[in-house]
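Z., the sequence and structure:
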Amino acid sequence: MSRQPLGPTADNAISYNTGLGEAQYLDAMTIPHEELAAAADTLRSWALDERLKETVRADPALASIAERVARRYTAGSQVDDALRLLAANHAKGHQGSIECVGESVRDADVALRETETIVDLAAQLAATPGTATISFDLSHVGSVVSPELGLKHALRIAQAARDAGSYVMVSAEGSSRTDLVLELWERISSDFPETGITLQARLHRTPIDLDRVRRRPGPIRVVKGAFLESSAVAHPRNSAPMYQAYRAMVSELVRASHRVNIASHDRTLVARLQDELGDELRAEHVEFEMLQGLGTELLDSLRDEGLATREYIVFGPEWWLYVLNRIAEHPERAITALADLNPQFTSQLRECDAKSGQSS
């Protein structure tokens, strides 16, 4: 039975960042690889379980516990929550990117409502200190309802961002939607060339996509890719081929002077890029970007070294899928979830147990 270390490894590609103060790794602890994989599958199944989500939200005690866990990964449910965190990050020298988190929208009225929220966010950014971009999934604003509806709403958001002195970054989605995402992004960038796009290093198709998107000036955010994909479509996450693909993409963009956001909180990967590219990473077209709650100390240290940094801030009430998928990426983060619950965890768990006993 193979065992995976819960800390950065010296000679292989796998590096786990559990989030315990980001610098505090559980180096002495190991968990069998098979158990980690099973835990990840369980978390991903919970993420997609609508009945479980509604059960948790309907119970005040369970909802409070879940929301406490979510706060590591999200700013809160409202725009103001995201703006407060943006201001705090700006004071530390970080730029920001804000997303109103949401799942695939299949109702035109919901897509319009979500678009209104993002447009309102853009308007408020105009009066907010610091620099922040707006990120969103095209499926969140209607592309699943119809590509034309998604495009219509995305163009409206891009205009609102430009009016606020900012721009939008289109997020990556599962590989089954990559063609649609790239097609719509190209149509958006025809009117708003500053619009950015996100590419996933682990997809086998990405080198061809990279050649395609480099023809336009918008920034390219390079991520590993977190979606469940088959081996025919993608390299295994945190595998050596994925790391090689990631480093090759970043090196190509940095050396071509194309705007690039290096979006990873993986210490081993970041250190390898610094070794390979050195002062080239200080160029004005290069940024390091990390998700809220997953790379705080690493992002601070990069900023202290004089590198451009950006934290990705998530807000909104529909965080269930996003948060569980973040934990599923590295199931050891369940330990940090327990730490986040202290000191209220014990009393609320007893309350849940009491209710369970009354209903059994």
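The first strand starts at residue 3 and ends at 6. The longest helix spans residues 108-125.

Let me know what you think.
H.
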